[in-house]
Amino acid sequence: MVYISGGNELLDPIAIFERLGVKAGARLADLGCGGAGHFVLPAARIVGDKATVYAVDILKSVLQTVTSKARLGGLNNVKGVWANLESYGSAKIPAENLDFALLINILFQSKQDENIIKEAVRLLKIGGKLLVIDWNQNPASFGPPSIDRIKPETVKKIARDLKLELVDEFAAGIYHYGLIFKVN
């Protein structure tokens, strides 16, 4: 498997969505989606055309790529949203509206992890779930430098401080960990 675009090719979105409980009709945002649409496109198929999947990124070119891929694939339920996730309130998605928020392979790219997680939580309704997947500490010949990787314990502490409940912890493939939190 080749490491490209944050390593998302190493992750199986369908298995992850099954574990998360994503179903038809759910409202979901992939925060820091990247241009491949690796999670956005499968999510859009699962939730169906009566629901919305928000593709959120700081790069407008990435959003154009993802929304174009969605249209070409006959998926009209993907909405691109430009946002700097490090700034609270920047994602122009109604607060407390989402069933699921995804933070996949983005926390290692920032030193503002708490702000990013706080922004994700702002978007989730009561009972909504936050999925965090990021690089584990295992050495690999690819991926971000170990010093940039955020430890799951750090994510759990931030989540506790934000009153989130940890409902699942798992190995998301060989190189990543997964954490699922619920808003109470």
Structural overview:
The chain has 184 residues and is α/β, with parallel strands linked by helices. It has a single domain, classed as 3-Layer(aba) Sandwich (Rossmann fold). It is 27% helix and 27% strand. The protein is built from 5 helices and 7 strands, in the order αβαβαββαβαββ. The chain has a 7-stranded mixed sheet, sandwiched between helices.
Strand content: 25-35%
Q: At CATH's second level, what is the architecture? A: 3-Layer(aba) Sandwich
Major β-sheet strand ordering: 3-2-1-4-5-7-6
Tell me the name of the CATH homologous superfamily: Vaccinia Virus protein VP39
The largest pleated sheet is described as:
7 strands, mixed
What's the CATH first level? Alpha Beta
| Structural classification | alpha/beta
Any low-confidence stretches, pLDDT <50, length ≥5?
Answer: 1-7
Count the E strands. 7
**N-end to C-end Cα span:** 38 Å
Count up the helices: 5
**CATH topology call:** Rossmann fold
Shape: globular
Nearest-angstrom radius of gyration?
15 Å
What's the order of the H and E elements? HEHEHEEHEHEE
Write the layout of secondary structure elements.
Elements: H1 13-20, E1 28-31, H2 40-47, E2 53-57, H3 60-72, E3 78-82, E4 98-104, H4 113-123, E5 124-135, H5 152-161, E6 164-171, E7 176-183
Parallel strand pairs: 1-2, 1-4, 2-3, 4-5
Antiparallel strand pairs: 5-7, 6-7
